[in-house]
Structures are given as structure tokens and as C-alpha cells.
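Figure S4 source data
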Amino acid sequence: MRLDRVVIGMRLDRVVIFGLFILIGITSCKSQKKEIENGEIKTKVFEVDTVSLIRNPGMGWTIYDDAHDQVADAKEYWIKQDTIAKKYASVLYLRWRWSEMEPEEGKYAWEYDENFKSLVQGALDRNLRLAFRVYVSGQDNVSQTTPEFVFDQGAKFYMEKGGDGEVKSPYPDDPIFQEKFKNFIQAFAKEFDNPLQVDYIDGYNLGWWGEGHHLRFIDEENREKTFKWIIDLYGNTFKNVPLVITVDSEIGHDLELIHAINGQGYAVRRDGYASTWMPEAQKDLLRGLFPKSFVVAECCYWQDRSIESVNKIERVYNWDSWADYYKQVVNEALETHANYLDLRENVESVRWTRDANLEVHRFIKKGGYRIAPTQISYALKNDKLTIKHLWKNFGVGVVPNNNRRWNYKFKTNFILLDKDDTIVAKWIDENAEPSQWINNEVFEYTTEFDTKNILNGNYKLAVAIIDATQSEINQLKLATKNTELIQNKYTFIGNLNIEE
């Protein structure tokens, strides 16, 4: 039995209890039974679900509407993506132009655009959460990404190559652009700074494709000042939903660390997995930020190209099939501890699930986090309930409870319920912190709770990881199987008899 870390929840002042839990450890190692009783000691050994799709916040396969071309028609989109969304995905990622999020000043898509609202509602109806990137640069975009009213009011611009010719793009250090974009972001956050529906927001998005490339300024001396401005704009406006930045961009990783990752608590993403555009040094960078930051992974945007044409572009690689390519994508995602990976739009999602279905399931099994108690033992003596609990993360990612905007909101709760499944007591072990549970280590805690004010009787003991800011609304699903769920949410541990 490997115990890599031991955290004592509360000091045990009774030698007899200490002795009982030594016995628990010995008994648990020797017995093959699911539940073991030895006097007042009970132990529950949990079966772990290592394969099912678990739609916990902060992780998962992502489908896109990437509106670099025309925005998707919601009805057609959900007809095409319905099965894939239900079987594999956890997040709908909307990458839309600012010009379509706010085509007229103060007229927002979430209020007036029925197609936008249908895309969002379609995700929520399928138990998907949301993520967003808002384009302001027009490079390679089918139409202008910044609303015309911004330029009408005097914002300076330059021309970039759009999908149908040249389009205007704003200088991000222009004060009129900054004023209008600030107004938009404040309205955007008012609507979508909701962690029950939104997993993350891309909080930078300048430059080509919103990835921070080929930046242009009215005055180059404004480069760092402008970067800090937009990072702080998102960071000071979104209080509850995690923000991410495309890491190691043109602005430089030192500034990303100072202003975004350390300064505003951003997580990181990298676009271009399994390509020459993502060198080993960037993979090392991502690994070095783990587990402080969760990682959003995205492969290249190949659309409907053949694998032969991709090989000609890449040159370094020579994949025999799309299955080979996707295997490398998943390998790199797992090696860099990715919480998210992209099935993207329908042409790619069909190809992923048809040609590399094993790889899709491999990321479901190992990507992100998959947490479960492996064993919980408990003993009651002298009005003190002592619980020893062991946890393990079977995924390669992190429970992003340590993200600044989640702010350690998920707590390990033990729940006592009566015969009618009414909650009698609820206790938190503050030491059992989910963001510390790293892949394949075992985390053990022992804690003690007072039962002297609980009436005599027979009770059920259960466990759950609950969002303290939302109480019963938001919980992390535990990767257990063949286990009773009380009220369809609390994982049953065992019975507890309280008597004088």
C-alpha cells in the first residue's frame, strides 16, 4: 500500500483510536471484502470507474463553433454535432467576432441574436458547459472582427488580409478602441461570469487568430502597457470564471508570468499540438506550470485537408493516417497534463470519432482529472467520529480548485443522514484539498468530528466534494462504480450507529 502523503486533519488525543486505525490499515490490506467490520471499525473499499465519460467542470473534450468563417447556424450545428456532443464532449467553445457579439454599440448577441442564444442553449440542453474567445484582429477572418462603430468614433486601424479581401483591425493601444472594448467586456462578464455554465474565458486574444501573433501598435513603446491593460481588463472583470492565455506568445513568457499567470491568476493554453509550431521547449514550459495551472490543449486547424497534404505542410512528420496523427496529439496532451482537448467543429469531430475513436476514449479515461476515494475507514468512540480517507486522481490533469477564481471552493464533505435520507450533520475536512491530488499518488487524511449533539439512532455516512459557494447545486462527480448514491449525489460509505 503506497502512501505518498499523509495529512492529519485533526490531532488525535486518544491512543486507543490511533491503535484502531493501525488495525484498520492491517485489516484493509489483508481482506478482500468490500466492507469490513472489526468492533467499532468499518472500512469501505471503493471500486473505481476508469473508463466512463465524467463531465466535471474544468476539463473534457471540447467542440467548437470557430467563427473565423461564417458563424454556425444553430439548428444545423446541433443536428450535426448532437451525437458527438452527447457521447464525448463536455464543453462548447464559441470563438466569435466582437463585431457579431456587439454589431451595434450596446446591442449584444446574448440579448438580440436568436442564433447565438440557440447555440448556447443547445449546449446547456446537452449538459455541456461553455467557453469563449472573442476575436478583434481580422487576419484570415471572413469578415471584420471589430465593430464598425468603433472606427466610426475615431479608433485608428490598419488593414489585414481577411477571407474576402482586406479588413480593418484596431491598434490595441488606441484609447477609443480600449474604451469601447472595456464596455463590451464589462457587459460580457455581467452575462457570462457564471461558473455554473462557463468553464473558462480566453482573456487576451490580441493578434492573429487571437493567439498573440503579429502584434501592431500605434507606438511600439506601448507594447507592455497594452498587454497589461487587456490582461487586467479581463482579470478585474471576471471574478468567478477562470481566464486562460495562449502561452509563450510574441509578447514573451516573462511578461505572461508577471501580468497574467502570476499577476492575475491566469491558466494556460497552447494551440498547435503535434506540429512543428509547438517545440519541445513549449511542452516543457507547460509541464513546468503544472499543477499550478490547468492546461488547455488544441491541435492544429487542418479542417478537411488530407493527411498527405498535412504531411507536406509539416514536413518533419510523416503520419500514415489521421489515426496516427491523433495518437500523437493525445500523447502530447497527456504528457503535458492537459485538462482539455479539442474535437472542434463537425469535420474534425467526425474524423476524430470515426478514425481515432480509441484515442478519443483514451483522453476520456486519462485526460483532465478523475478522482475517487479508494478507501474510507471510520470509528466512533466517546462522541468522536474518526475518519481515515484515501484519495487518488486517475487522470493526468489537475482539479483546478487552486485557480484564483475557483479559490478552493470545492470542499471534501462527510455527510450524516437519517433513515429518511435527511441530512443530520455535514462536516468538512479542510486538509483534503482536491487540487493537490496528482496522478497516481495516494493521498491519506485522518480527521475527527464531534457527534455529541446528534441524537441516538442509526445513520448513513456519505462523502461528496461540494462547491461551498453553491452548496448542493454544484458537486464534483466521483469516479466510483457499483456504489449507492444517496439523494443521487452523496456517495454512501456505510452505516453508523450512535448511542450512549
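Figure S5 source data
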Amino acid sequence: MLHALQHTAQRPGRYPGAVSPPQDSRTLRAARRLCQQVGARLGTRVSVELWDGSVHPLGPDPEPGLRIYLDGPGVLGSLLRRPTLANLLRQYASGGIDLRGGDLITFFEVLREKRSRGGYRTLRKRELIGAALPFLLTPGRATPTRHAYSGDETGLVRARRDETDFIRFHYDVGNEFYGLFLDPRMQYSCAYFTDWQGELEQAQYDKLELICRKLRLQPGEHLLDIGCGWGGLVCHAAAFHGVRAHGVTLSPEQASFAKRRVSELGLADRVTIELRDYRELEGSFDKISSIGMAEHVGIANLPAYFSKVRSLLRDRGILLNHAITRRAKRSRRAFARIRPEQRLIKKYVFPGSELDHIGHTLECMEAHGFEVHDVEGLREHYARTTRLWCQRLSAREREAIALVGPERYRLWVAYLAGVSFAFGDGSLRIFQTVATRHRAKGPSGMPPTRSHLYA
């Protein structure tokens, strides 16, 4: 669980606003003994720095400077009484736990090195309990979190589901904040790497081009981008593929930025941006893109979503649905269960989000008049994308804290790192699905090969 932490610039002092605990020799001795017992079993290259400044390696070959700092005995007391991911995250977000000598990605990779050899499993509960006893009566460290969603973050109760509120909580953290880690086009979706060592900027350009080619955009066609973000796709499609493009978003911050970008690029005669709910749209479009939108809709609302999209798309028009998914489970009940890490993401970063599995999404699309042609998995592409985002945000820590404060910065770094490893391990997936609308039987209008994607 320690991978949900991140390095900060506070060194070697304490987190701002923290109250120095009394130097209790009993708890210090117990903490040192606990470190010794854990270190003997784990053998990691990380050390623990206690609140008195002493450093204790958690293995025989520690990496110089790579330390987990504990702000006081109350941190250990709190974690030992309630060893949950939520409590760990709160301790980190409020500064009770700090990482020094590396960013979160580095710590996570180092702490995982021994996991495959069973190091964590060899810890003896009796030894841990003996060392932990002095902390069980230690007053816990207060961990207030100011940046939590105040409503029903799950969004499962339709009557209380507020799409606008969900979107604004996530996206209106500020354009300047997102600009710290996104590429210049402000692409906040999975990049497409033609080389695993490639740069983010090129990979995001290649993603935009891949989407446009999959949509088979032709000059003069009318493109709708549902959930257009900061307008990167509609601007690219208009500038390089000659289409007329319309983007809609529920985020005022995004809409303002996108309109300004359209004007700066001289595309006002071909691109329009609207602050509007997609359910209010009317008219007919030749092609429709939905990039990172389905995650906001909610699984129960997907049938209505695809029904509405179908009503906006001309016959034989192409839809590209780009969405994060989870693996299917053996039962619907098991799939519907909200895991602790999912609940934390909903509470602190992405309220209302819900990830389908690809099988159900395809079923919904077919049931509402779409013929599915191509399904491409981009899981490893998103693992690298979010890794780069996390590292870029970490590198600009001071600027981020100045914009959103230390707590929200830490929550976001933990979020980006967590999803990066979830994509890398395979618990999260992402797919681009190409489908056409069919009002009647007959040919789809799609070409016999996919050579147009790579020519």
C-alpha cells in the first residue's frame, strides 16, 4: 500500500502546519524495532526516516536517500489501528507520510521488487503485534481532507446523479494545473505510441491522427466530438482533415480554453465549441467521436447514451468510442462491487465515474443500432501516458502546490501513479471501438482493409 505516496519538496522539515509530537523514547524504540523486523523480512532498498531524524533501512542494501518519512508516532498509531488504503492516502495527502529521494513511480517500482518473491507474506503477525502495541494507545494524527466530493460520489442513485457537478469537480481544478503535465494540445486521454520510448507530444499527435483516420474523415464532413475537452481533436480534424467540427463540454474552464484556442488557430469558420449537455443536442452529423466520455455516463445510462448518439449520426455514419474499461467478472454482482481504490478515486478525483467491461459496451452498441467493425486495445499505451503525466506533474511540484495546494497535488499524483500501474498490470483496460449506424440492411460502407490507418 505504500505505493500510494509521493515525494514532496519539504526537506528535511515537517509538513506545513504539522504539530511536533513530544519525543517519546518508548514509541521511538518501538518504531525502530518495528522497522528492524519489517526490514529483515522485506529486504527492500527503501529506508524509513522517523520523526526524530533517525533513518532505518528496510533491507540490507538500501538505496541512498530513498526514504519514507513518518511525521510522528500518531501516524503509525493511526495506520496500525486502521490499516486501510483510505487511511494511508489521507495520511499521505495531509503530510503525515512523505517520500524523499524519488518520485512516486520510483518508490512504487522499488517496493514491488520483492513482492513476487513473497517478502510481504513472510511477515509474522505475532512479531508485528508485539512491536505495534505501544502505538495502539497513541493518539492518532488528524487527517482532514478538504478536497473530497461532498455528494454521492458513486453516482449510482440516478435521482441524485449530477453530471454537471461531477464534471466540474474533476475538470475545473483549473487549466493551469492541467497544463503542468499535459501536452501543448491539452490532450487528457490515452496517447498512441509508435515507439515505447517516444515522447508524449508526438504520441498525442499520433493519437489524434489515428482517431481521424479511423473515422475516415473527408473534407466538408460534419464531425461532433462529445466531451470535447480543451478542443484538441476538433481543431486537429478541422486543420488537417478539412471538416467542420462541433465540440460540446460541461466544463466552463474547458469551453473557455477551447474557444480561445479555436480563435488563435484561425479556425472559427470551421470549429464551434458549446457549453452544453450532449442530451440536448439536435441535428445530424457525418461522424461522431466520444473520447473518454463513456466513463462519465454510468453503466446504467449507456443504453440511453448510445441511443442518443445514434439519433445524431447519419445512416452509415461512423462512431468512434474511446473508453477505459475494467475486466469482466464471473458474475454481475462481483463486477458491480466497488473496490476500495475505486471508491477513493470517485471521492477525491473522479466522482460519478464508472467503468464498464468491453463486452457489455459492445452489447449496448449493437442493441442500439450500431454495427461494430474494429475494437483495438490500448492498455499499455495508457500505462505509459499516465506514467509520463505523473512524472511531469511531480517535476513541477512547487508550481502545482501554488495552484491547488499540497493536499490536492498529492491526491492527483497518487491517482496518476495508481492508474498507471493498474493499466500496466492489466486491471484497467482501454479500447477504441469503431462502429457504423445502420438504419436498414445492406453494405456498411467500410473499406475492405484497414490500410488507410497506416498509409
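The mean pLDDT is 88. The two ends are 46 Å apart (CA to CA).
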